[in-house]
Amino acid sequence: MIQRKLEKLGVQTSLLGFGCMRLPQTPEHTIDEDQTALMFDLAYQAGVRYFDTAYGYHGGESERVTGRMLKRYPRDSFFLATKLPMYMIRTLAQAKDIFEEQRQKLQVETIDFYLLHALNKETFNRAVELGIIEYCEQLQREGKIRFLGFSFHDSYKEFERILRYRNWDFCQIQYNYRDRNIQAGTRGYELAAALGVPVVVMEPVKGGVLANLPREVSEPFRKVNPGASDASFALRWVADHPNVKVILSGMSSMEQLRDNLQTFETENPLTQAEMDAIEEVGKRLDSRVKIGCTGCRYCMPCPHGVDIPANFEAWNHLGMYGPGEGVTFRWTKALPSNAKASQCVKCRQCEQKCPQNLPIVESLKKLQAEMDEAYAK
Ligand code: SF4
Ligand code: SF4
Known about the structure:
Blueprint: E1 3-6, E2 11-14, E3 16-19, H1 33-46, E4 50-52, H2 61-70, E5 79-84, H3 92-106, E6 111-119, H4 121-130, H5 132-141, E7 145-152, H6 156-165, E8 170-174, H7 185-195, E9 199-202, H8 215-224, H9 230-239, E10 244-250, H10 254-263, H11 272-287, H12 308-321, H13 325-333, H14 349-353, H15 360-374
Parallel strand pairs: 3-4, 3-10, 4-5, 5-6, 6-7, 7-8, 8-9, 9-10
Antiparallel strand pairs: 1-2
């Protein structure tokens, strides 16, 4: 198992981290603890030493199950990471209650890696105003947490502001070969490296879509390395960044775990031909983009409630990756019916505001028809 040193913190961990946000489930949609135990054991035996959960995962059950699973191993043989749900914190007292609840659920005295979860401009400002950071620093002094960091979802500008705000022990960013220029991105990775802040990467396979590419897209991978999975290319691309110290993979099955264990068995940098294959796959994905919406939101708000960029994002996802979980989430879960393209009355107010001069009205009509077809019962 590949190990990485976090020089700043004086510790070493497995590069593969077990993400506990998509644990295997029973037909009743509860966590399948028997299967989870088998997966934890196999991962642990193979040398995985970083387990990452959060207050909100699996409706609050992930921490409880993760705690039960890890209780079976010596406490000093692994690192446990969990997160304070800044998106729901409104008072310091609430944060304190949640922290104690987390320690109880996880059955530990000390949380090794503690993160302010999903920071963005708004939640970071709130963390500062409420004194959450000082509270976490106090927890660190008391030995209740070892290392303090944050996970992040916003623009590079906000990432830089947060990263420079204090001397963080680590940070966690979304990073993969498709997301080099969104959120923290490559600039964010490089800034963290320059400041000596270790990086934990989440979404290395972009919520699973890079693990399951349409066959005609992933063909360059087959040519250059026929036995390797799509996921292994994405993971190795991230692993080629030396300041990435942990790569989190939210594994739901033994098959995914085994594939990941194989990928992370030994350092295996991408060859030039493999890097070229990744660029070619990227180009193929780009050519399947339905509309060049940048997500700038200048067209918003729509007086009739259509969330134009969210509709386009779901549509582009459908074009690039085909129907699957990523599109289902964006179209059926994240987008309420009163914000869908079907609500458009063709007033064209949005088109005048779009800096890309996109044919919004015509595109919304097309996308609604394609989504109707993709999701026809
Ligand atoms: S044309 Fe449609 S999407 Fe654009 S502002 Fe009007 S109703 Fe909203
Ligand atoms: S203004 Fe144009 S590019 Fe920007 S979000 Fe709206 S449709 Fe997309």
